Amino acid sequence: MQTSTQPRFGTEELSVFYGTNEAVKKINMEFPDKSVTALIGPSGCGKSTFLRSLNRMNDEIASARVTGRIWMDGEDLNDKNTDAVTLRQKIGMVWQRPNPFYKSIYENIAFGPRYHGTRSKKQLDEIVEQSLRRAALWDEVKDRLKESALSLSGGQQQRLCIARALSVSPQILLLDEPASALDPVSTGKVEELIIELKKELRIVIVTHNMQQAARVSDFTAYFYLGNLIEHDNTTKLFSNPSNQMTQEYIMGRFG
Amino acid sequence: MNAKTADKIATGVIIFFAIVIVAILGGLLGFILVRGLSHISWDFLTSPSQNFKAGGGIGPQLFNSLFLLVLTMIITVPLGLGGGIYMAEYAKENKITGFIRLVVEVLSSFPSIVVGLFGLLLFVNTFKLGYSLLAGAIALAIFNLPLMVRITEQSFRAVPREQKEAGLALGLSKWKIITSILLPVALPSLITGTILAAGRVFGEAAALLFTSGMTTPPLDFTDWNPLNPRSPINPLRSAETLAVHIWKVNSEGRIPDAKDVSAGASAVLVIMVLIFNLIARWFGRFVYRKITASKQVN
Amino acid sequence: MENNKAAANNKRRGFARHQREDMIGKIYTYLCVLMLIVVIVSIVYFVASKGLATFITDGVSPFEFLFGTHWSPDGTNPSFGALPFIAGSFVVSMLAALIAGPLSICAALFMTEIVPGKGKRILQPVIELLSGIPSVVYGFIGLTVLVPFISTVSGGNTLGYGVAAGALVLSVMILPTITSIAADALASLPRGMREASYALGATRWQTIYRVILPTLAPSLWTGIILGIARAFGEALAVQMVIGNAPFLPKSLLTSASTLTSVITLNMTNTSTGSVQNNVLWSMALMLLFMTFVFIIIVRLLQRRNKL
């Protein structure tokens, strides 16, 4: 009955508590398909916490409690009965610091699909190649798939992590400051990749870098002290923010 | 006294004490090796010990120590691994976890002779295992378990958190993450810690006096059927280890060359501990390099 | 279409599978923890039931056991005063801590304050090796080097066995315990604390003495208590050098006994179930009890540390 008003993917009154401290306060947001939504705001504003709650990463933190609803195709992901392990497969995630598994490049990609039931070597080879191509890494590593993922450079490792996330065919990609630990060239590559990937996916990206938000995103949300201050079309938000606080933050950062 | 002078004197005293400690170790090792190495020969290492005559070796004792170590680790490693994984990955910060932590702390503080006495009471007498390798291995496992739990917990806690999260984001089960993603990362320090713990087990004697016993039956090293009483690998036979042997020949022994035998055996024991230390360091680094190296098979 | 079917299939299989895996993991780790608890409960239960039998079944007075100074378990009118052994255990372990405490704290200061970096690279392996040497080896060296040495120093009036030999051997054995705890405590101190003191013109020793040591006192005491605990429970090395006479230690050079040495020597020479045997279990119970006391002291110290 409610389905028509429910977002395809979004949150309803989502709050995150650490102990008694409300780090994220009753957020209502929707993330449109085939587009990039950037979450910006000063450190500690709750944007990363919010992002992490979208695929229930905060389940693992004993002191964290998440209330409200996360809608995805008519299902509430924050419901106790929703199986977090299964839903995470549909929501890929990439972190600030590259975190490849201590395994070969090939294994990093093949590990997830194999676990989820793809056994044939041929199919796995295909998935590995496809994922690495989508992450624009294939040409650089195709001759060294058996080498340890840790032998790659930081930028390559981060793209490998994106490829790994893509290997289990997620519908949504959560990026937590994916380029902040990288050099400018690698950052450029990751940004190009994001623009390329949004043709097929919903992407939510947390970033400290406002130029980056302006370059890659279609929508931008400004967080401050756990509140969602403004959420709008990126061009609109940066050129003509409707909220005074947003304006000050953007001006302060740009000027 | 002026502050500068006091500072100089204090610094001098501290440095002097540090030198004293180094000298103590140097003296101990020097004494053991000088006194013991001359007594070590292939014959000494392989021939059986004597009860009344001079010229006995330590062959069976050396074998017993090594075999008992293997048995002990077979029991300790799976249990310690499970306990440590629980502490690192499953335990929530609550009263129950606090209680388990206390249990580990208490267990690791029990004097080893008490653990040995417990082994005597429960395994040797009540379960009728008699003085046996098995009873000794269980006692040593109990003695070693808290250390193994701690090593495992620390090794797993040292794994970057993002490794686990990456596994979660791929939709893996927690157990799969622990065994396939965290374990390989934790492995180097796990191996180092385990080998060091093994070194400690190797030199332990107090827990064994009343469990694996102070005698060894005549062994037939061509008989490898674990059910035969003369077989070296029969877990139900009694077995005097190297450390127990050193104690026995000094306290209750009647052999005329007790001092020589103990010196030789002590040297062997110390060398083994040194080897364990070196292997632990080297192997841990080796495994780490193997996992992170550019050339890798898997 | 096929993709969807595979996905649905995966989902169904994945669902059952990851829950099954997590169940296995939980059962395995919980069983291991349960095992730990079972072990500790049974140790306490079995040792206590045997140790209390002396007083309950055999009718030995606990007062006599704890405070009696006369130990003659055999004969028609046996007496079971274990005070000489209890006192022996306390005296040797306290003396050992008295010797090892200052040495260890100096070693830790050497590693972290006097020669930071290099000092640790030198002393750390030394400490690790000292802690790796098996206790029977310590006993053997004590027996062949220390005991004759003490005998010579005393002018040949004694054999050299006794409290002094026991305490010296134990002090080397507990040195690594105290040093590593003290070094960890020193390393955990915030850098700024030292600099603030130096900025006020204090010398290094003044900083150590007035700022660092008082701040770390609870941790240093923790190290010393754990050292005493280890010495208290050590059996063979002490037994080999202490002389094993069942009397209250009157001087450093007289032969004495500890709880552990008496247990070690007599456990297999007495028949199970006899009062002579049960009283040894009472001593083991005493060792267990002291373990708990030491842990309680350490916990109290740690609590003070947090405030």
UniProtKB/TrEMBL annotation, chain A:
GO terms for molecular function: ATP binding. The keyword Repressor does not apply. InterPro entries: AAA+_ATPase (IPR003593), ABC_transporter-like_ATP-bd (IPR003439), ABC_transporter-like_CS (IPR017871), P-loop_NTPase (IPR027417), PstB-like (IPR005670). It holds the Pfam family ABC_tran. Gene3D superfamilies: P-loop containing nucleotide triphosphate hydrolases (3.40.50.300). Keywords: ATP-binding, Nucleotide-binding, Transport. Residues 9-250 form the ABC transporter domain. This is Phosphate import ATP-binding protein PstB 2. It comes from Saccharibacillus kuerlensis.
TrEMBL record, chain B:
InterPro entries: MetI-like, MetI-like_sf, Phosphate_PstA. Keywords: Cell membrane, Membrane, Transmembrane, Transmembrane helix, Transport. Its main location: membrane. Residues 62-280 form the ABC transmembrane type-1 domain. Gene3D superfamilies: MetI-like. The chain crosses the membrane at residues 12-34, 66-87, 99-123, 129-147, 181-202, 261-280. SUPFAM superfamilies: MetI-like. Pfam families: BPD_transp_1. It is found in: Cell membrane. It comes from the Bacteria. It is a multi-pass membrane protein. Belongs to the binding-protein-dependent transport system permease family. CysTW subfamily. This is Phosphate transport system permease protein PstA. The lineage of its organism: Bacteria, Bacillati, Bacillota, Bacilli, Bacillales.
From TrEMBL, chain C:
It is a multi-pass membrane protein. It is found in: Cell membrane. It holds the Pfam family BPD_transp_1. Residues 86-298 form the ABC transmembrane type-1 domain. Keywords: Cell membrane, Membrane, Phosphate transport, Transmembrane, Transmembrane helix, Transport. InterPro entries: MetI-like, MetI-like_sf, Phosphate_PstC, Phosphate_Transport_Permease. Coiled coil: none annotated. The chain crosses the membrane at residues 27-48, 85-110, 122-150, 162-187, 208-232, 279-301. Part of the binding-protein-dependent transport system for phosphate; probably responsible for the translocation of the substrate across the membrane. Belongs to the binding-protein-dependent transport system permease family. CysTW subfamily. This is Phosphate transport system permease protein. It comes from Saccharibacillus kuerlensis. The gene is yqgH.
